[in-house]
Amino acid sequence: xxxxxxxxxxxxxxxxxxxxxxxxxxxxxxxxxxxxxxxxxxxxxxxxxxxxxxxxxxxxxxxxxxxxxxxxxxxxxxxxxxxxxxxxxxxxxxxxxxxxxxxxxxxxxxxxxxxxxxxxxxxxxxxxxxxxxxxxxxxxxxxxxxxxxxxxxxxxxxxxxxxxxxxxxxxxxxxxxxxxxxxxxxxxxxxxxxxxxxxxxxxxxxxxxx
Length: 210
Hints:
Blueprint: H1 2-41, H2 71-83, H3 96-103, H4 108-134, H5 138-150, H6 156-169, H7 172-183, H8 190-198, H9 205-208
């Protein structure tokens, strides 16, 4: 019995040692690949940014006339107006190394700014939609959220609230399109958004109870 126990213990320890070494090798390979790509990216020449997929804010299609007197909504309008004069690009899922490899090291400051503008845009759209929804402007909230989805937002609650609103109106076709949009995201949040939408709602109960 003792011999069997010792043999099992030795095998177990050997497996642990093997897995540790395997993990170390994988980690070292990852680091090596990263630094090789980073070094390569630092030598890429500056490229034109003329044909980037810049995002425009379609004010004529958004409910700008609703709740204009509300302080929070007014601030969202101000923020969107300010962003409209800036360049906005969705680089969700791309690292700085990816961007430097694609567009050149000299452009990284501009690209980071465009991406920061995008992040601010989708967060503002989500907060604006929440404000509209809470004051029973459901159709207007849908309009804002659909614009956010169309430009690839990965703000999870934009998907969850819009899914609830589609469910409430019995719009299964748009609900299916929403899931499809989530499946095409290039985002670390993609899987959790998709899994949540594949489950049964409501998805944004946190908002209803607020």
